[in-house]
């Protein structure tokens, strides 16, 4: 077991002195970064700035107990911490401020996140995992306040899992679970539900987690007393304080942000509790100051009175730290020893300013060099076109007169020039066009890559393995297929675990996990509380630490509780780090056609639109669902898999190769061939579409039925367009609301696949009513497309073109 900070602090006075001065130096460097960063914004060299000034001392103390293998999940105020643990340099700080798109210069996000959002790179260039135990880890920050909390729970729970779960390569992710997950949050954001849900879950699960609350008394301009039931969050949390002998609750420590010795003591105790006893700890850091206010978008003088501003000036953490250093003395062997004199601290202050200025200058020069090189590679080629169109010189002059130039100005110049010379066939224009294609590809990579995995393990690369059936293959309930497939999965992949409401003891509400907890234990097959946001958070955090979690959201309707985390966090992990981090969590849920306002919704369009970056898989039965689980466990993409709620008791033939067969993503399946019309659908609606297709056959209409299977990615080989080319008619049938998923599918087929070229009739969408289904027994029939609806509306298409052959029904 790793030792803690408390157990290792037996050092000489000289070492103690050196540590203090190093902390003071780092604190001053961080402060000067904040000061200069603000000036860079106000002088127009950067767009926006939000800084960590005032929080230097508590972050210095927190960093002392942060070990290799530990993880932080925080928000945009932790620059001092990132600096101390070598996740940030002066140069990379300013590179991020300027939004430099170089991964080498701005490794946290390559210009994709505003400043103050930190991350370490967990992945090698090929997308494989680094040895996370050989580095201090920061999971990529997000801006939505408290949005980082659910993920924190998973990062901490991974340590608990690793105490009992090991597998080949697990030493890269944990030393038998001795790591801590550190979270940081502003005091105002503790009013958010994600904070309370996360802390509640952590106290129930007893995971090694330290949450630091930076309490500066305000949420932007709103004082604390208007944020919560009580101004003192530690007082509010007093009921969470664990009692002796009980395995619930947390430890709560309150400490002043300007009291350096007390901060060291507080974090030493917090680490001891978390690392040795595996309990969550809240460190409430009070009396935090904010010397420059909330951000560069406003001044705190507008909402803080003179007394408050005067107090903040007097109790600035670095000022109090300096006073403490100058007042410190101790007698050792009859000789008075001090840490430093005024002159020495002044020299450190001056050196910090020089270091920061030098780093800023280098970052700016590197950033400008990229722009200059782009312009120099393009301008001569544009100049060569002046003789071909008189407008070109005007465009060049307009560009030259710009005081501040960005990449977009160079591209605007190229594109205007190409537009002006359209129709011209010259070597000069061809050169410019070639250069445009070359530089555009570079910027496309800079700004649009890594929304999905680009590694060899991306889901699209998983080869299809068809289910194998034999004479002995049994017809069983669909839930048995998925259950037995999970059994094979847990046996094959020791790093796989599943958790959710009712997932453990009773084997989920539909018995798809029946007997799995008894066989594999309550760590790998676990029940959770009713708290969807943190169920997702558990999945994200554990996936970031090398486990393969399946986070179960009991019903599709309740996925809305965790949609914020799916959209803001999970979907953007690879993108916002430009391939530096990944979280291949599988979200298991069930939904679609039954009755009831909150048990048969199909909010697929919301998921599609808000969660680009997550695969959306919609199997029509439980065998297909099982195949998708087998596929995704070979992939490093995150995915949501929607099982059909009405399919668990329907009979399916069980494949002989459970745990092995796969369903390819982005691959449609033609389940009925036809020549007159293409019917496109997915999920539970497929069964009803097949019924309607049989009815249409009796009416002389040959319908081809296509099961989409995978909404994201969608029909990668454009097979639907080939079907429409044969039938010349297209109908999209969906149980989402009008203009929902059907609109997405239609756009993909008509626009991306260009299938409009083959249509002899208007494309038709048949969707659900805009309300959710009623619970009444016929709620499904009257709320969502029925077989009767489909037959009548598709028949009407043919009535329009040939009323004699297809006379009107009504």
TrEMBL record:
Keyword Oxidoreductase part of the UniProt annotation: yes
Leader sequence residues: none
Cofactors that this protein relies on: thiamine diphosphate
Domain annotation Transketolase-like pyrimidine-binding: ranges: 476-650
Xref: SMART domains: Transket_pyr
Keyword Oxidoreductase in annotation: yes
Keyword terms of this UniProt record: Oxidoreductase, Thiamine pyrophosphate
Protein name in UniProt: Thiamine pyrophosphate-dependent enzyme
Provenance organism: Chryseobacterium edaphi
Biological classification of the source: Bacteria, Pseudomonadati, Bacteroidota, Flavobacteriia, Flavobacteriales
């Amino acid at each position: 077991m790793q030792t803690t900070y408390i157990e290792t602090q037996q050092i000489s006075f000289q070492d103690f002195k050196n540590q203090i001065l190093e902390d003071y130096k780092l604190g001053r460097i961080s402060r000067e970064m904040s000061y200069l960063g603000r000036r860079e914004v106000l002088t127009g060299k950067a767009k926006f700035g939000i800084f960590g000034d005032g929080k230097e001392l508590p972050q210095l103390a927190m960093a002392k107990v942060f070990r290799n293998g530990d993880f932080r999940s925080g928000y945009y105020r932790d620059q001092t911490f990132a600096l101390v643990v070598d996740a940030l340099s002066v140069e990379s700080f300013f590179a991020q401020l300027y939004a430099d798109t170089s991964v080498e210069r701005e490794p946290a996000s390559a210009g994709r996140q505003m400043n103050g959002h930190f991350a370490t790179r967990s992945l090698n260039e090929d997308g494989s995992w680094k040895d996370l135990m050989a580095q201090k880890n920061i999971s990529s920050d997000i801006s939505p306040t408290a949005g980082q909390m659910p993920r924190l729970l998973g990062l901490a729970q991974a340590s608990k899992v690793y105490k009992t779960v090991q597998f080949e390569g697990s030493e890269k992710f944990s030393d038998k679970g001795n790591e801590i997950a550190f979270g940081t949050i502003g005091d105002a954001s503790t009013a958010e539900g994600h904070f309370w849900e996360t802390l509640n879950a952590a106290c129930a699960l007893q995971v090694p987690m330290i949450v630091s609350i930076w309490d500066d008394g305000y949420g932007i301009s709103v004082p604390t007393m208007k944020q919560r039931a009580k101004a003192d969050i530690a007082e509010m949390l007093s009921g969470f304080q664990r009692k002796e002998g009980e395995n619930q609750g947390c430890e709560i420590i309150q400490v002043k942000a300007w009291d350096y010795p007390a901060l060291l003591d507080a974090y030493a105790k917090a680490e001891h509790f978390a690392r040795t006893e595996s309990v969550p700890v809240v460190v409430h850091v009070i009396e935090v100051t904010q010397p420059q206010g909330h951000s560069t978008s406003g001044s705190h003088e507008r909402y803080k009175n003179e007394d408050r501003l005067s107090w903040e000036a007097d109790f600035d953490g670095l000022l109090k730290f300096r006073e403490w250093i100058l007042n410190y003395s101790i007698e050792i062997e009859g000789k008075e020893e001090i840490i430093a004199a005024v002159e020495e601290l002044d020299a450190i202050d001056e050196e910090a300013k020089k270091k920061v200025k030098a780093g800023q200058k280098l970052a700016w020069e590197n950033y400008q060099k990229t722009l200059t090189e782009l312009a120099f590679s393009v301008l001569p080629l544009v100049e060569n076109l002046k003789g071909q169109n008189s407008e070109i010189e005007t465009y060049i002059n307009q560009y030259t007169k710009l005081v501040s130039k960005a990449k977009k100005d160079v591209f605007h110049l190229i594109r205007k020039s190409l537009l002006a010379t359209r129709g011209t066939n010259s070597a000069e224009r061809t050169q410019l066009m070639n250069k445009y294609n070359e530089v555009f590809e570079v910027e496309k990579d800079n700004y649009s890559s890594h929304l999905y995995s680009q590694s060899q393990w991306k889901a699209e690369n998983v080869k299809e393995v068809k289910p194998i059936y034999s004479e002995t293959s049994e017809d069983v309930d669909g839930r048995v297929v998925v259950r037995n497939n999970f059994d094979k999965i847990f046996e094959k992949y020791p790093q796989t675990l599943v958790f959710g409401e009712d997932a453990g003891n009773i084997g989920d509400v539909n018995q798809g996990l029946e007997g799995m907890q008894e066989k594999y234990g309550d760590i790998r097959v676990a029940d959770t509380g009713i708290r969807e946001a943190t169920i997702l958070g558990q999945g994200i955090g554990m996936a970031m630490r090398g486990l393969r979690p399946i986070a179960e959201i009991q019903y599709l309707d309740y996925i809305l509780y965790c949609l914020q985390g799916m959209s803001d966090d999970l979907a953007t992990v690879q993108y916002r780090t430009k391939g530096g981090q990944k979280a291949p969590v599988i979200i298991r849920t069930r939904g679609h056609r039954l009755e009831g306002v909150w048990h048969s919704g199909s909010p697929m369009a919301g998921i599609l639109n808000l969660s680009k970056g997550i695969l959306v898989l919609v199997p029509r039965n439980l065998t297909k669902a099982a195949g998708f689980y087998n596929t995704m466990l070979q992939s490093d993409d995150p995915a949501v898999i929607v099982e059909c709620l009405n399919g668990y008791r329907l009979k399916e033939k069980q494949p002989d190769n459970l745990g092995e067969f796969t369903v390819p993503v982005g691959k449609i399946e033609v389940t009925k061939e036809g020549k007159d019309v293409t019917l496109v659908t997915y999920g539970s609606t497929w069964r009803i579409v097949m019924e309607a297709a049989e009815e249409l056959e009796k009416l002389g209409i040959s319908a081809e039925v296509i099961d989409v299977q995978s909404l994201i990615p969608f029909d990668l080989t454009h097979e639907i367009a080939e079907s429409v080319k044969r039938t010349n008619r297209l109908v999209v049938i969906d149980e989402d609301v009008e203009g929902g998923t059907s609109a997405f599918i239609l756009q993909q087929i008509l626009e991306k696949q260009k299938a409009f070229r083959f249509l002899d009739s208007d494309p038709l969408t048949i969707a659900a009513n805009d309300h959710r289904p009623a619970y009444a027994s016929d709620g499904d029939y009257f709320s969502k497309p029925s077989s009767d609806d489909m037959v009548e509306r598709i028949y009407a298409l043919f009535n329009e073109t040939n009323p004699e052959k297809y006379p009107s029904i009504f």
